[in-house]
Design brief:
Structural class: alpha+beta
Protein name: VOC family protein
Mean pLDDT: 92
Radius of gyration: 16 Å
Shape: globular
Strand content: 35-45%
Strand order of the largest sheet: 2-3-4-1-5-8-7-6
Helix content: 10-25%
Low-confidence stretches: none
Order of helices and strands: EHEEEEHEEEEHEEE
Number of strands: 12
Domain Glyoxalase-like: 8-183
Largest sheet: 8 strands, mixed
Number of helices: 3
Oligomer: single chain
Length: 210
């Protein structure tokens, strides 16, 4: 199986229909993703599944209980016609130092900004991440995240589907590899259309998502 990238924090599976995608994940794996929370003002909400260790899967889509945010929803969910793994995140030991190191090596991952979501129990979680607007358009170069004093999502008894492999394809893998190196991580890349593929272990055997 492919190696798991260094510093992996989470994978992002974006969808135009969150409830349908959560139901499909449950049907295929036998594991029901847990409600994560609401991204207030952004028009999205998510469900989460642990990938083992401190890695997890975020399934994110439009929140029908929020009014339209007046701006594009995160991860371009407004433009999706089907669920797709759109990007991934890493969690370096020091977010600001990692940003500066990447810039010194020739890649700017973007400025760190504060984000939040409210869990179903009312708890407001806050974290910092690099601005997706500055990220590589393929989604194959991860954004950076720092949970700081906030409890990490995997510390909240999430259902688990251990990650077996993670890989991606790109028209020019040699363009992507040096950018990954500036961030201190790596990803198994092969030539092809832009896409991310991951396989998880489940009660129904290995299941692959794209």
């Amino acid at each position: 199986m492919n190696a798991i990238p260094a510093l992996l924090d989470h994978l992002v599976l974006a969808t135009p229909d969150l409830s349908a995608t959560v139901a499909d994940f449950a049907r295929r794996t036998g594991v029901t993703p847990a409600p994560g929370g609401v991204h207030i003002g952004l028009g999205t909400r998510n469900h989460l599944v642990s990938l083992g260790g401190t890695g997890y899967l975020e399934i994110i889509g439009p929140d029908p209980e929020q009014s339209a945010p007046g701006q594009p929803r995160p991860f371009e969910v407004d433009g999706l016609t089907a669920a797709r793994t759109v990007t991934w995140a890493i969690s370096p030991p020091d977010l600001d130092a990692a940003i500066e190191a990447a810039r010194a090596r020739g890649y700017d991952p973007g400025a760190a900004q504060t984000m939040s979501r409210r869990r179903p129990d009312g708890t407001l979680l806050r974290w910092r991440l690099t601005d997706g607007d500055d990220a590589h358009p393929s989604g194959l170069v991860p954004f950076l995240i720092d949970w700081s004093a906030t409890i990490h999502p995997t510390a909240s008894d999430l259902p688990v589907t251990p990650l077996l492999s993670l890989s991606a394809s790109a028209p020019d893998p040699e363009e992507i590899r040096p950018l990954l190196s500036t961030l201190g991580t790596d990803l198994d890349l092969t030539p092809g259309p832009v896409g991310i593929t991951f396989t998880v272990d489940t009660p129904r055997g290995p299941v692959t998502f794209h």
